[in-house]
Amino acid sequence: MMTETRQIRSATLEDYEHILKLNEESVHFLSPLSKEKLAHLHQQSEILKVIEVDGFVEAFVLALREGKDYDSVNYTWFAKNYDKFLYIDRVVVSLKQQTSGLGKLLYEEVFKHAESIEVPVLTAEIDIEPLNSVSLKFHEKFGFKEVGKQSVAGGKKIVSLQAAQIIIPVRR
Prior knowledge:
single chain; alpha+beta; Aminopeptidase; seven-stranded mixed sheet; 5 helices
């Protein structure tokens, strides 16, 4: 049996096509993403990382700090309620790699980064109408707790706004 090679790295312009394809594959849980919007978010982002499996981009995460130019109603909600945060805008794993641990690897990377830059809270939203139970369970394992709810997409969805506290070690 061959072992696959996995590499987490910062995204580049060359990855946009793959990122957009992955986003489209799971767009029912996300908001649509154009190349222009992706470029803008990449510029605004704190983190835009991909995971390559055997040379193919199979997952990505996009996260932004507070104070960025982003018109997401969920990002705006967190900006009104938290002074300092890292907002996970989207984490996407290809359908063929679901349950392979790539999402966990990306979240571990995001948590490590948040700790290293001393951001006290990670934020994200999860669909609860329609219910995305897989995502809810996934976030629960990482210590996310509901801090609010809101109706989005013109009333077509309700999201659970969630936050996870980051334990920042005392530096001596």
